[in-house]
Amino acid sequence: MNRTRYLATGLFLVAALLMQGCGKEEPPKPAPKAEVPPPPAPTVVKIGSAAPITGPQAHIGVDIRNGTQLAVDDINAAGLTIDGKKIKLELVAEDDEANPTKATTVAQKLVDSKVVAVVGHFNSGASIPASKIYSDAGIPQISPSSTNPKYTQQGFKTTFRVVANDDQQGPVGAKFALQKLKPKTIAVIDDSTAYGQGIADTFEATAKAGGAKIVAREHTTDKDTDFKAILTKIKGRKPELVFFGGIDPQAGPIARQMAELGIKAKFMGGDGIQTQNFIKLAGNAAEGAMASMPGLPKDQMPGGAKFLEKFKARFNAEVELYAPMGYDAVFVFVEAMKRANSTDPAKFLPEIGKTDYKGVIGPIAFDDKGDLRNGPITIYVVKDGKWDTLEVVTPGGPPAAVPAEPAKAAEPVKK
Amino acid sequence: MDIFLQQIINGLVLGSIYALVALGYTMVYGILGLINFAHGDIVMVGALTALSVIAGLAGGAVPAPLILALALFAAILVCVALGVSIERVAYRPLRRAPRLAPLITAIGVSILIQYTAALIWSKQYIALPEIIHPTQFTLAGASFTDLQLFIFLLACGVMAGLLWFLKHTRLGKAMRASEQSPDVAGLMGIDVNRVIAFTFLLGSALGAVAGLMVVLYYGIGHYFMGYMLGLKAFTAAVLGGIGKVNGAVLGGLLLGLIESLASGYIGDLTGGVLGSNYRDIFAFLVLVVVLVFRPSGLIGERAADRA
Amino acid sequence: MATTLPRQPAAKWLGIVLIAVALVVLPFAVDATLGRAWVRIIDVALLFVMLALGLNIVVGYAGLLDLGYVAFFAVGAYAYALLASPQFDIHTSFLLLLPLGALITAMFGVLLGAPTLKLRGDYLAIVTLGFGEIIRIFLNNLNRPFNITNGPQGITLIDPLQIGDVALSKTFVIGGITLAPVHSYYFVFLLCALLIVVVSLRLEDSRIGRAWVAIREDEAAAKAMGINTRDIKLLAFAMGATFGGVSGGLYAAFQGFVSPESFTLLDSIMILCMVVLGGMGHVPGVVLGAVLLTALPEALRYVGPLQKDWFGQVFVDPSDLRMLLFGLALVLMMLFRPAGLWPSKIRKREWTA
Fold first, then answer.
1. Mutate: best of C1, C4, C12, partner A, most A CBs <10 A
2. Within its chain, how far is the Cα of B164 from the centroid?
């Protein structure tokens, strides 16, 4: 570069920066904004929402965001007063594309926007890296759907979730299967994602401990469509039950191809397959498939029916999966704010741990890591082309005792 | 034994689909020396178009075979239009450009098609309505459907048809001539541009057929399905011998078999160290090995190391 | 090059000082106006500058089309993650680890480059693509039977860059100015990026650089001239890999978390876009490309709400829009401006010849 170019570039850059500088005061001070002079208008308090609004999981992300939005609207309609001030909640929604790197950018954005709490993210692959940023900023985070146990095991005080995690869900599914179906042989497939493999591992460990024989352990990816090869291999091992850790775009074709190959085993999965999409993709082969899903069945949820109605009226769509969790998460935050009598995260964060709230999804209380305490898990089955409730399991005592052992025994191998 | 046979059948059907897609790659490569990255996505567009037609007409008064015919027709129309336009707009101007340019353009076109498809069809996985009900047969303990048989026969039939076409028709001969030497072919009175356009037409049409088969076989369509399929089909074409029609089909069937058998047996063979999660790697490994040790493929001619 | 006396040495030096000042003040200025998220974006942009410059050596200088470059980024990141995290409970200092990571990645570069030596253009591209995918799949699956990479769950709680007690993940206050992690890392990245820029420029002007040009233009002639094409090509891969490895290690320390999801084919293509669209083989062009392609998607996020305001609903998701623009940009650039947005004069002549 020649001399004038250097000079020109330098002048330009400095000028640009100076112009920005004119718009602001001093270099940023860490002094937190104290109170706002109480205007007659209500104080705006921002709640952040991070979910995949675009991408293959968009249908689930939008669902979560809608649930969160509905809660914000309901609370605003009912009127909220904290510490004598009228509060208006505002939802700051960001799209993390279910991508780990984007998730951290989104987290930083939300922190910058001065949200006091975040409902997010959807997948563990996003929630985990983002949680560090929230923790550093002292912003409490409730995930409505991330089930990877690691999320709450990082030692952060700000991570919570309102779903049972995989350490709870997998064993519950396995115990249910062992008790009700009594399969002697089981085949386990996972989709090589953090979620799918996590739940498949815990399911397998519990099933093994329960005396079943795992005749095959196969892996696919979250983009595959052809499972004939591994299913044929599984067919040769004659399982009575096939468990799939993964989500509906794979689960549907797997169920279908199982039927095509004439595999007579029962099909079971985790919350990832408990969607309308699964039934559409599997067609007739969906009949009889089972799935576990953290939370009470929607029609048994206190206020569940009303929630479903309200949701449908507002968004003109059925609840896909985690909207109720998103809804309750906001209420948990607000309840904590009420108890702490403050909208300052530093003040109401400790209150979250003491939550004892009856939400749409059921009773919500957290353990010392931020996991949902005794979160009920429902087992669903597809009957006549629709998901039907089969049984509700409350892991209350058992998760602490029996399934925990095999899950913990599996950990050294997993890690 | 029946499991082994089943895996063979799986592999052959999978391979037939690869073969149908590979034919498109190999024809374009033969005549232009260009890897049309976008071909896999053209297949995807064909698949989704067919899906839309089927979804739109299913459950109504139109009989199933007619729906399929219409779907095929629509898919071919769309794919051909797409393929020929791409050639005209993106590839033709770059025929004399350095090697890098058409390659990068092809990547760009591929991305464009994928995300336009995402706009049109959304990023959801789309399910095929139940309009076909394949009948199952069993042979020595392995089961297969008439659909699978059809796909396999289709691939072989198309190959035979293409070979006949290339050998016995004027246009076919023109294609072969242009492949060997575009300049001399031009001197002989062949309009090379039109021949190339026709090659794309043919390739895209075949892609549409492949797309319809994929949709019927797997019952599912998705805007991103072209990527992996395209990559594997290209591997198949290279494996068999790029530029040759029978090479593409041979390579396709072989690759399907390799994938199927490997997924089925590699776990046992390696004592659990490698499992079916490495399935995609097999295709890539095959690609690398073939390209490094025998770039002309199994039945291709020894081409000189073109720099 | 000192045939003419510099007419205005003062002007040039003043310019450089101004640029330096601007670069130093930048993170704080951005923090105050656009917010900390944008500082983070700048940090990521700097990482991509390093990556793009690395790929520039392979594609731009040596003319070897590499579609799997992100594999080196991944290797560097995982090498760092494995040796500085609770995964194996080893905690190596970054002073040792970054060079070590670079070395390991360079070895991978040679490993992946070796089989490709006889391949030309298209085939080379596909094989490198295959390698990129192979690396990613291995990283995703090396958690059984022995857990090496922790599979799809990725590795968390990676050590930040730190010397003794001073860790860059903490916030410092120096003389009234807050130095948050994003700021500290900015300076580290800036330094590394500048280093890589200098190395790139020196390489371009060296015997090796000219050998690369020779191979790019006509390999047979180059061989005839006595250039050891095999070694030179391997060197290109190795050097490119090294840059990728260093950026990978920095990325791991910065994010604190790595998973195979961050290293897909799409990322390889993105880096390729930065090099091609910016100006292949021309360092300033590549830097421009990297900055543009990192900042643009973030800027495009605002298009979503904009669409809502204008049309009442979002027709095109910003991330889809970004991809559409990329595809279009690639095609249009190759048709009308194949040398890139900011090519060097020599390259421009090459492309339009």
1. C12
2. 19
Of C7, C12, C178, the CB nearest to A6: C12
Specify the CATH number for the domain of residue B90. 1.10.3470
Residues of A in contact with C17 (CB under 8 A): 10
Residue-wise pLDDT tens digits, C159-176: 888 877 777 777 778 777
Burial class of residue B56 (count of CB atoms within 10 Å of its CB; 0-12, 13-18, 19+) = middle
Q: Which residue has the higher pLDDT, B238 or B99?
A: B238
In a domain, B200, yes or no: yes
Torsional sign, CA A176, C144, B2, A289 = positive
User: E strands within C94-170?
Assistant: 162-163, 166-167
Residues in chain B: 307
List chain A residues with CB under 8 Å of B225: 225
Task: Give the nearest partner residue to A3 out of C15, C141, C156, using CB atoms.
Answer: C15
Q: What is the ipTM of this complex?
A: 0.83
CA–CA gap between residue C58 and residue C203 (Å, rounded): 12
Range ranked top by mean pLDDT from A400-409, B251-260, C117-126: B251-260
Pick among 3.40.50.150, 3.40.50.1100, 3.40.50.2300, 3.40.190.10: CATH of A43-164+299-364: 3.40.50.2300
| C131 touching B (Cβ < 8 Å) | yes
CATH number of A167-294+384-410: 3.40.50.2300
Evaluate the omega torsion of the peptide bond into residue A219 and state whether it is cis, within 30 degrees of 0.
no
Give a yes or no: residue B305 inside a domain.
no
Q: CB contact, 8 Å: C329 with chain B?
A: yes
Query: For chain B, what is the mean pLDDT?
Result: 86
**Residue entry with tokens 């002292």:** A138
State which amino acid sits at residue C34.
L
* Segments making up each domain of chain A, as ranges: 43-164+299-364, 167-294+384-410
Question: Based on the structure, what is the number of domains in chain B?
Answer: 1
Q: Which residues of B touch C331 (CB under 8 A)?
A: 90, 105, 108-109, 112
Per-residue pLDDT, A55:
66
Please tell me the distance in Å from A261's CA to the nearest CA on chain B.
Answer: 6
Q: Which range of residues forms the domain containing residue B101?
A: 2-293
The pTM for the full model equals 0.83
What are the pLDDT digits (tens) for B57-68? 877 777 888 888
Is C317's CB within 8 Å of A53's CB? yes
Residues of B in Cβ contact (< 8 Å) with A252: 125, 127, 220
